[in-house]
Amino acid sequence: METVREYRQSVFCRNLVTYPVTVKETDILVSTVTRLDVLTREKVFLYRGQIESYIQQNPNFLHSLIPWDLTGPAPGIIRDMSNAARLAGVGPMAAVAGAIAAAVGNDLLRCSNEVIIENGGDVFIKTQMPITAGIFAGKSPLSMKIGVRIDSASHPVGLCTSSGTVGHSLSFGKADAVCVLSDSCALADAAATAIGNRVRTSADIQNAIGFGKAIPGISGILIVVGSQMGIWGKLELMPITGKKY
After folding, report:
1. How far apart are CA 57 and CA 72, in angstroms?
2. With the C-alpha atoms ordered 208, 100, 102, 58, is the resulting torsion angle positive or negative?
3. How many CB atoms within 10 Å of residue 93?
4. Domain boundaries 6-239, corresponding CATH code
5. Do residues 56 and 136 lie in contact, with contact meaning Cβ atoms separated by under 8 Å?
6. Domain residue spans in the chain?
7. How far apart are CA 73 and CA 240, in angstroms?
8. Distance CA 213, CA 195 (A)
9. In sequence order, what E strands does the chain have?
10. Could you give the CA distance from residue 240 to residue 245 in angstroms, rounded to a whole number?
11. What's the pLDDT tens digit per position in 35-88?
């Protein structure tokens, strides 16, 4: 599997400052109007701490592959992950990267009116003008040759990617990329995993899209398997001709 985040070499955010922030296993790429790396690190520590504390009290939360039955008080990020997992039919940790990106991103919006946070292929986006997000799909010939146009001027959105051939995230499928668009970054993350689990070959693309579009709150799906692709919903394909994000 590909482990190096090669796609970050192609990131370019016009008029925004882009910088990495790393806290333990969380390795994010942040774009804001001004550099906010100290604040970003504090927020990552905060939300990671909430998740880690909840797992200490509820160890099964970390390993569950089915929706989590949330009972009693819990931090907002745990509730976001649990709700996303319930809608997508997966374990709550399938939503962790998207949930952290959204929690940190929403906090940064108090200091910057434009924020993009990429967390392992899961992206929280709030920009004044539309952007093109390139699709990294490992060894597929379509990888970084196509992108999707994202308009987040009115409200933040999440564009999250799951892959059975790229990275370390758990997937039971073999898709090179499953990208999901939603107003909820946590839901987009969980849904990308759920949809990706259903793709073993290109013959599974349409059935997987049929499954995904039935998940409440999902507005777009893109699946890439080798040279084959399927798309549904509010995703506008764009050619990638240079550095885009």
Report:
1. 12
2. positive
3. 23
4. 3.10.520.10
5. no
6. 6-239
7. 45
8. 10
9. 17-23, 26-32, 115-119, 122-126, 131-134, 146-150, 157-162, 177-182, 218-225, 228-233, 236-239
10. 10
11. 999 999 999 999 999 999 999 999 999 999 999 999 889 999 999 999 999 999
Is residue 156 within 8 Å of 106, Cβ to Cβ?
Answer: yes
Q: How many CA atoms lie within 13 A of 9 on its CB side?
A: 4
Please indicate, yes or no, whether the overall pTM of this predicted structure exceeds 0.85: yes
Other C-beta atoms lying within 10 Å of the C-beta of residue 162: 31
* Three-state secondary structure call for residue 184: coil
Q: What is the pLDDT of residues 30-49, one digit of tens each?
A: 999 999 999 999 999 999 99
Q: What CA–CA distance (Å, rounded) separates 167 from 96? A: 15
Torsion-angle region of 233 (φ positive above 0: left; ψ -120 to 50: alpha; else: beta): left
